[in-house]
Amino acid sequence: MSDSPDTHRKISTHTFHLKKQRGEQLTMLTAYDYPTARAVDLAGIDSILVGDSLGMVVLGYENTLPVTMEEMLHHCRAVSRGASRALLIGDMPFMSYQVNSQEAVRNAGRFLQEAGMDAVKLEGGRERLEAIQAIVGSGIPVLGHLGLTPQSVHQLGGYKAQGTTATAARRLLEDALLLEDSGCFGIVLESVPARVAEYISSRLSIPTIGIGAGGGCDGQVLVTHDLLGLFDKFTPKFVKQYATLHKHIDTALAAFKKEVETGIFPGPDHSFSIPDKEWQLFLEEDGVS
Ligand code: KIV
User: Fold this and answer.
1) Of the residues 34, 129, 183, 243, which has the fewest C-beta atoms closer than 10 A?
2) CB 53 less than 6 A from any atom of ligand 1
């Protein structure tokens, strides 16, 4: 069998490695439920990230900090039932890997053992090496995440671009090299200047997956809800909306309300019938002549 990443074979971390070597772009999107996972998988996207962004996008939290392991596992299970080809990555929630390496390994293991994931992602650089090495050492692939790391939003002082000074860019590069040395199979670079992300990507043998990090990364990830335009409230600068589904949803919901209130829905096309003979019998038996 050839090693080429074709459209049917299950994507693995090895595919990530091959695509980086060949200069082929990697694609990754988020999914948090069965139908979205199915659509993303059928579209041939390389990887599905069950991101802790689900806290904001589907659970209505203000940020990702309240998301728990149980919530993540619940959504990961649904996604794993909907996808068969894409590499499935479970995002480790806040405080599931920061306390100590033992807890980090135990929680990372749950993503694979209980929720059908193939790999995990966690945020942070030099301060996370011990946890990353322990997880990788137990046989679980780890995707790193540098730049804007939303679980540190309070430390970062908001959702701002990172690596915008020479010193910060140097620190990002050092962290990326450390993550590579620690065994990460790839690194998400979030909200990093395009030139910095491109330079870091050129210095690594593992792929970088950019989000708000320009076109010089080895792949791109977006939150699917943003890409589809499911919300009209806020769209980050780096998001390209490929659809404005919220408009279609608004139109459909208004049409439903109007048709029910005016008696148009349900009409005969959406109703069941009983044969005349049975109907007459029913009425007679009930004393209606
Ligand atoms: O949680 C998430 O969806 C993420 C992506 C934005 C990379 O971390």
Assistant:
1) 243
2) yes
Q: Whose CA is nearest to atom 8 of ligand 1?
A: 51
Beta carbon of 31 within 6 Å of any ligand 1 atom? no
pLDDT confidence band for 60 (50 / 70 / 90): very high
**pTM for the whole thing?**
0.94
Q: Position of tokens 């792929």?
A: 207
How buried is 102 (Cβ within 10 angstroms: 0-12 exposed, 13-18 middle, 19+ buried)?
exposed
Q: Which two tokens stand for residue 64?
A: 């990702």
- 91-124 pLDDT, tens digit per residue, is 999 999 999 999 999 999 999 999 999 999 999 9
Nearest CA to ligand 1 atom 4: 51
Please give the distance, rounded to the nearest whole angstrom, from the Cα atom of residue 175 to the centre of ligand 1.
19
| 285 annotated active-site | no
Amino acid at position 137, single letter: G
Contact 230, 245 (CB under 8 A): yes
Let me know: does 208 contact 185? Beta carbons within 8 Å: no
In degrees, rounded to 5, the angle at the alpha carbon of residue 251 between the alpha carbons of residues 240 and 42 is 50
